[in-house]
């Protein structure tokens, strides 16, 4: 009985020690980074704080932080991310951004953190910033575009860092394409990245269809037809996720738009 109690006390002591060390690490990291934080968060765009590229590099070079964290990387990063999530709920831009980046520096392994951080940078933070702009500003439209482009570029830079730790991850590429399309209004680049992402391991079938639709929207009907034709011929039969019949419908539509002669069209398929 006494030996069991002793084992329980030892386990409890270890857990308490881990908690104490984690708290000490967080306070220590905050103390080490506080001078950098004061320099980093300066008004850059209509009064909003934005972490500058040079200071982001300085932050990532804080090797002492990783040394302090040691074997507690995952636990510490989770705690920092949780604190960042609380800041996100309060629309605290500086604290949200700082927390996300610090969590990724401490532990670069979690893929979802890279994806979620990039989405917050590209979509949430611009929304918060734009909501604070006065509707009567004479140059409001220009400021909105500038905010979106600054945050979109920062999100893409973060995704580039994430690809170092998660190479050939189709979701990171797909998110980059989405940002190019919906934030930066660059359909050309978005279509190109969607096409590449669709060739990566475990890529969902719909990425190829998105590229085809972007080509159609840009009026590149010949290129869209050639793309859909190649996609159709590569899709397996009998897999509902492949949506092969949808691709065929789009091919037929493009054949009509292009007014292709019969010999250039995809031969009639079984069941048509």
Q: How is this structure best described in words?
A:
The protein is mainly alpha-helical and 272 residues long. Helix content is 72%, strand content 2%. It contains twelve helices and two strands. The protein has helices spanning 2-40, 53-60, 63-69, 73-89, 93-106, 111-131, 140-165, 170-182, 187-197, 206-217, 221-234, 244-258; strands at residues 43-45, 48-49. Strands 1-2 form a two-stranded antiparallel ribbon. Strand 1 and strand 2 form a beta hairpin. The radius of gyration is 25 Å and the shape is flat.
Q: What's the structural blueprint in terms of helices and strands?
A:
Layout: H1 2-40, E1 43-45, E2 48-49, H2 53-60, H3 63-69, H4 73-89, H5 93-106, H6 111-131, H7 140-165, H8 170-182, H9 187-197, H10 206-217, H11 221-234, H12 244-258
Overall structural class, as computed from helix and strand content, comes to: mainly alpha
Q: Roughly how many Å apart are the termini?
A: 78 Å
What order do the strands of the largest sheet run in, or round the barrel if closed? 1-2
- Output the helix-strand order: HEEHHHHHHHHHHH
Q: How much helix is in the residues?
A: over 70%
Query: Can you summarize the main beta sheet?
Result: 2 strands, antiparallel
Continuous helix count: 12
**Shape field:** flat
What is the radius of gyration computed over CA atoms, rounded to a whole number of angstroms? 25 Å
Fraction in beta strands? under 5%
The stretches of 5 or more residues where confidence is low (pLDDT under 50) are 32-65
Average pLDDT over all residues: 82
Q: Give the number of DSSP strands.
A: 2
